[in-house]
Amino acid sequence: MAGRALRVTVLHSVNNADGSLCVDVFRRPDGSIGFEEYRRDVEDPSGWFAVGGYAAARYDDAETAIRDAIDCVVWFEGV
Predict the structure, then answer these.
(1) Is 76 helix (H, G, I), strand (E, B) or coil?
(2) What is the CA 61 to chain-centroid distance, rounded?
(3) Environment class of residue 73 by beta-carbon count within 10 Å: exposed (0-12), middle (13-18) or buried (19+)?
(4) Residue-wise over 8-18: b if at least 16 C-beta within 10 A, else e?
(5) 23-37 pLDDT, tens per residue?
(6) Nearest-5° Cα angle at 39, 31 to 12
(7) CB-based burial label for 35 (10 Å; 0-12, 13-18, 19+)
(8) What pLDDT band is residue 1 in, cutting at 50, 70 and 90?
(9) How far is the C-alpha of 78 from the C-alpha of 15, rounded, in Å?
(10) Are the C-beta atoms of residues 54 and 10 closer than 8 Å to each other?
């Protein structure tokens, strides 16, 4: 399957109270874990857009990624 983009598997997905922001914790095909913050605008039917810039960070487990997401994403701590 050369040329196909490798997909991640979302392990946890948490929205903020109004559903406009989301943090996804995911596993890459190589087994590493990451997270990203996303935003969607109700008036834009295009869907979710990465806004955090955290996706490149690598973690050995989801718990560590979640702890880092809590430290990095202000609204995520209270969820």
Answers:
(1) helix
(2) 14
(3) buried
(4) beeeeeeebee
(5) 999 999 999 999 999
(6) 35
(7) buried
(8) very low
(9) 11
(10) no
The encoded tokens of residue 49 equal 């857009």
How far apart (Å, rounded) are the C-alpha atoms in residues 24 and 64?
Answer: 13
Joined together, the tokens standing for residue 66 give 């979640």
Closest CA to 27 of 67, 69, 55: 55
Q: With the CA atoms of 10, 70, 59 and 32 taken in that order, what torsion angle do they form, in degrees rounded to the nearest 10? A: 10
Between CA 73 and CA 47 the distance in angstroms is 20
In angstroms, the Cα distances linking 12 to 8, 16, 25, 51, 55 are: 12, 13, 5, 17, 14
Look at the chain and count its residues.
Answer: 79
pLDDT score of 5 more than 80: no
- Identify the pLDDT of residue 4: 53
| Mean pLDDT of the residues in the chain | 90
